[in-house]
From TrEMBL:
Pfam families: N_methyl. Keywords: Membrane, Transmembrane, Transmembrane helix. The lineage of its organism: Bacteria, Candidatus Vogeliibacteriota. It comes from the Bacteria. NCBIfam families: IV_pilin_GFxxxE (TIGR02532). It comes from Candidatus Vogelbacteria bacterium CG22_combo_CG10-13_8_21_14_all_37_9. InterPro entries: N_methyl_site, Pilin-like. This is Type II secretion system protein GspH.
Length: 223
């Protein structure tokens, strides 16, 4: 009788083990079978929606990135004018005397082309004026804005709707030198020619700070 119970117990344990192994095998089999049709359709639908959203926003993302780069480039060139004024020890203007170079001026825009601006020389100071006077014949460097972007508007504090501004930097310390009695605070709007609501503000403060803002012009009227 003891032998019978021992045999029964062994059969029960074996049956339990076989059942567990069968369940494990079935689970592995189901896992290897992959997605069901419904699961596959759900995954494909989610992937399609995500792809559509990404593709729809891609042009806007590219425009934003390009606009940021253009605004940063203009800010860099303005900083370059300041650097020239700080580092130039002698006159490089072929139209002037060696001792006459007093400052550099970045002119934005230069003329009617809103996609161009220039780094110009300045006339030497005279007894009749203590303000910066831009030399209209001497050009140090010329710049072109490429793509669908342009200088939409330029502003100087205290000046109403100027068509162009000249930002002058004195030798040898590179401080701002105003072109008139108004404070030397400037804002330049760079925008998309396709949609001018997409814009950046390049700001130049009278203390020499130069920075780009998404929505805050330094000159409050520059909107």
């Amino acid at each position: 009788m003891f032998s019978f119970f021992k045999k029964f117990r062994n059969q029960k344990l074996t049956a339990g083990f076989n059942k567990m192994r069968s369940q494990t095998f079935q689970s592995r089999k189901n896992w290897r079978a992959g997605f069901s049709l419904i699961e596959m359709l759900v995954v494909v639908s989610i992937f399609t929606i995500v792809t559509a959203v990404v593709l729809a926003n891609l042009p806007s993302f590219r425009d934003k990135s390009s606009l940021d780069l253009v605004a940063q480039e203009i800010a860099i060139q303005i900083r370059g004018a300041q650097t020239y004024a700080m580092s130039t020890l002698y006159d490089t203007n072929p139209n002037a005397l060696e001792t006459s170079l007093f400052a550099y001026a970045i002119v934005l825009p230069d003329g009617v082309d809103k996609q161009s601006f220039k780094l110009r020389y300045t006339d030497p100071p005279s007894d009749s004026s203590s303000y910066c006077v831009v030399d209209q014949t001497g050009v140090k460097e010329a710049y072109v804005i490429k793509g669908n972007f342009e200088i939409g508007k330029v502003c100087q504090e205290g000046v109403t709707n100027p068509s162009s501004i000249s930002i002058c930097f004195k030798r040898l310390n590179g401080q701002l030198w105003p072109t008139n009695s108004n404070p030397a605070n400037y804002s330049i709007i760079v925008w998309s020619k396709v949609d001018n609501t997409k814009r950046r503000y390049v700001n130049v403060a009278s203390n020499g700070q130069i920075y780009v803002s998404n929505n805050e012009p330094l000159v409050s009227s520059c909107i």
